[in-house]
Design a protein that fits this description.
244 residues, alpha/beta, Rossmann fold, Arc Repressor Mutant, subunit A, six-stranded mixed sheet, four-stranded antiparallel sheet, 8 helices, two-component regulatory system, WalR-like
Length: 244
């Protein structure tokens, strides 16, 4: 089931230059507040209230961002995240009332790029939304192509390839890998990566750990014995590009 607040703009000429956000939330009060804030910030947004409708809407409309509640009727947010990730790398911010570490890690491992624990500040949510959309809309950077070993970063296309093979990365995975490619053989603490990639001065360090694990699964021949994304025990991580 889906609905939109009265007066919300349709995705026609009024949406030119705007970004589309799909809210997946079965609490009408939360959905109304989030939708109102998104509209005030210039975004076009719609709401669906169950998991199956969310997956169908994503496949049909391809939004620029998904705000995904974890607890949903039908299939839950984790399953929605997995099904969406099977077909698209659209950014996903998960909204959850489950604040335990294993719950947050579960959302990240299912493919979410970010998360907020309820109750959250609508202003903080908008900052997260704008940060994600700003990253995905940046057309290019001065140094558009960077090579490190067998890895090639093309910021103008937001693409990273390994030995000529494009990698299927989520928004945060791309941002993390791009940062590491620009800084080969340097050791970074998780706090430093959280600041540089997520823009958080304070945050859950497991966010970095989970994204690093997901990256290893995509680029390492043996994720359990990585050749490129190395753990420096007691410090953090180092990217070893290897030979070209």
């Amino acid at each position: 089931m889906s609905f939109t607040l009265p007066g919300a703009p349709a995705a026609d000429e009024s949406a030119v230059g705007q970004r589309s956000v799909l809210i997946v939330e079965d609490d009408p009060i939360v959905a109304e507040v989030v939708l109102s804030y998104l509209r005030k910030n210039g975004h076009v947004a719609g709401v669906v209230t169950d998991g199956l409708s969310a997956v169908a809407r994503v496949l049909d409309e391809r939004p620029d961002l998904i705000l995904l509640d974890r607890m949903l009727p039908g299939i839950d947010g984790l399953e929605v995240c997995r099904r969406v990730r099977a077909v698209t790398d659209v950014p996903i911010i998960m909204l959850t009332a489950l604040g335990e570490e294993h719950d947050r890690i579960g959302g990240l491992e299912a493919g979410a790029d970010d998360y907020l624990v309820k109750p959250f500040s609508p202003r903080e949510l908008m900052l997260r939304v704008d940060a994600v959309l700003r990253r995905t809309s940046t057309p290019f950077e001065p140094q558009a192509v960077v090579a490190a070993g067998s890895f090639r970063l093309d910021t103008s296309q937001r693409e990273i390839s390994q030995a000529g093979r494009p990698l299927a990365l989520t928004v945060r995975e791309f941002d993390l890998m791009a940062f590491l490619i620009r800084h080969p053989d340097q050791v970074f603490r998780r706090e430093e990566l959280l600041k540089a990639v997520w823009g958080w001065d304070i945050g859950d360090l497991s966010t970095v750990t989970v994204h690093m694990r997901r990256l290893r699964e995509k680029i390492e021949a043996d994720p359990g014995a990585p050749d490129h994304l190395l753990t420096v025990w007691g410090v953090g991580y180092r990217f070893a590009p290897g030979a070209a």
